[in-house]
Amino acid sequence: MTFELFIFYMFATITVVSAIGVVTMRNPVYAALFLILAFFTSAATWILLEAEFLGVVLVLVYVGAVMVLFLFVIMMLDINIDPLREGFIRYLPIGILIAVVVAGEIILVLSSDVFTMDIPKPTPLDYSNTKALGELLYTDYVYPFELAAVILLVAMVAAISLAMRKRNDGTKRQIPIDQIRTKNTDRLRIVKMKSEEKL
Fold first, then answer.
1. Whether CATH 1.10.1740.10 fits 1-82
2. How does pLDDT run along the chain (199 residues), one tens digit per residue?
């Protein structure tokens, strides 16, 4: 076993374990942290496959932006997970059945001849995977790319609207429009008082 293969198996194992942690953790914050770990190890796997641009983008976009947004929304929503735990055992057989069906479909797809490919030719020295990805993304797949951007925008607006919803829990909240309209007379009151005489 070569050192590169050992590193690949190590990152692949960490990715699988962290993915299992994402779906098994009861605390949503811990689940999001496990997802960040899965993204990091997936980025390392991309770099091992000589797709450095994809690995760096995975870290910058997903870990640096998307997961920070997820953590912010999770902490702002204050999700009560007790009702979610109550029906876990009741839906466990259906979940196991769906997992077996999905695993069977993945095995059937991977065992077919679709994913067989010839050994790639060595790339020239001036080859840039970033340029090749950009040409492919903005020519053949420009419409799916734009559709994904619109879906992410809708998800971001929905997350902000969920975090900004009104709650009737008696919490005092700031009203920005009232703060903008304030005047100095509303904040400061000058009171004239007689000076006290010394005895």
1. no
2. 788 888 989 999 999 999 999 888 877 788 888 988 999 999 999 888 888 888 888 888 888 887 777 777 777 766 666 665 666 677 788 889 999 999 999 888 888 776 666 666 777 777 777 788 888 888 889 999 999 999 989 988 988 887 776 666 666 777 778 778 877 777 777 788 877 776 6
N- to C-terminal Cα distance for the chain?
A: 97
Contact 24, 44 (CB under 8 A): no
Q: Rounded to an integer, what distance in angstroms lies between the CA atom of residue 196 and that of residue 156?
A: 62
Q: Find the radius of gyration of the CA atoms of the chain.
A: 27
pTM across the whole model? 0.56
Domain range list for the chain: 1-82, 126-164
Distance CA 23, CA 79 (A): 16
